[in-house]
């Protein structure tokens, strides 16, 4: 995935000094990131079940992750949360009061 938000936030944190102390006060330059999924096997061409699945991301380019964080922070500060229905609804405890679901609309409208 070229733009994985979680990995990008980790790289941004490194770039902004989150781990400077671990490097004796010297700020390392992020060189990319990897998300290693220990419970999923790699594709056969990458080693198959003997190795975990790895999603790699190149070093950050541009300010897209900063824009993404600013948007997320704005939504939290403005309390603008628009729910969307999906597969995750099957495991959600708030289905009965969620405006994205038919059974929850009468509760919040």
Please count the helical segments: 3
What is the makeup of the main sheet? 2 strands, antiparallel
Task: List low-confidence stretches.
Answer: none
Report the average pLDDT across residues.
Answer: 87
Q: What's the Cα radius of gyration?
A: 19 Å
Q: Terminal Cα separation, in Å?
A: 38 Å
- State the share of residues found in helices, binned by percent: 25-40%
Structural account:
This protein is of the alpha+beta class. 30% of the residues lie in helices and 14% in strands. The mean pLDDT is 87. The longest helix is centred in the middle third of the chain and has 15 residues, at 64-78. Helix 1 (5-15) packs across helix 2. It has helices spanning 5-15, 64-78, 102-108, and strands at 33-41, 52-57. It contains 3 helices and 2 strands, in the order αββαα. The chain has a two-stranded antiparallel sheet.
Write the layout of secondary structure elements.
Elements: H1 5-15, E1 33-41, E2 52-57, H2 64-78, H3 102-108
Antiparallel strand pairs: 1-2
Give a brief rundown of this model.
The protein has helices at about 5-15, 65-80, 100-109, and strands at about 35-40, 50-55.
Key terms for this structure?
109 residues; alpha+beta; two-stranded antiparallel sheet; 3 helices
């Amino acid at each position: 995935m070229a733009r994985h938000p979680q990995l990008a936030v980790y790289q941004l944190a490194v770039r902004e000094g989150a781990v400077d102390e671990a490097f004796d006060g010297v700020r390392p330059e992020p060189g990319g990131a990897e998300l290693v999924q220990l419970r999923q096997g790699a594709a056969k061409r990458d080693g198959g079940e003997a190795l975990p699945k790895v999603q790699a991301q190149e070093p950050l380019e541009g300010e897209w992750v900063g824009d993404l964080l600013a948007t997320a922070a704005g939504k939290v500060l403005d309390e603008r949360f628009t729910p969307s229905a999906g597969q995750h609804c099957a495991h959600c405890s708030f289905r009965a009061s969620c405006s994205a679901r038919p059974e929850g609309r009468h509760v919040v409208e």
